[in-house]
Specification:
Shape: globular
Order of helices and strands: HHH
Radius of gyration: 12 Å
Oligomer: single chain
Number of strands: 0
Organism: Ferrimonas pelagia
Distance between the termini: 29 Å
InterPro entries: Puta_zinc/iron-chelating_dom, UPF0153_domain
Structural class: mainly alpha
Protein name: YkgJ family cysteine cluster protein
Pfam family, one: CxxCxxCC
Number of helices: 3
């Protein structure tokens, strides 16, 4: 599956613990990544400073198959489930 351009849910919903340019301590869940532009596209996509967790995330029809709002909800629920499990 190809990433739906302009969705941005994976740059908002999950927490990211690794450093991001402009966010040296990562970002909390639900906060927009500073590298997410107004067009909801990653400003550092394909660049070496992009965190591995971002580069490793691959869109999946079970998660990303709905609307942008639905994807954000699914990723938010997965983040919450991850926190409960740890």
């Amino acid at each position: 599956m190809q990433c739906r351009l302009g969705c941005g849910a994976c740059c908002i919903a999950p927490s990211i613990t690794s450093a991001i340019p402009g966010m040296p301590h990562g970002k909390p869940a639900g906060e927009r990544c500073i590298q997410l532009g107004d067009d909801n596209l990653c400003r550092i996509f394909g660049q070496p400073e992009r965190p591995a967790v971002c580069s490793d995330f691959k869109p999946d029809s079970m998660i990303c198959g709905g609307t942008d709002a639905a994807v954000l909800q699914v990723l938010t629920e997965l983040e919450a489930a991850t926190l409960r499990a740890s």
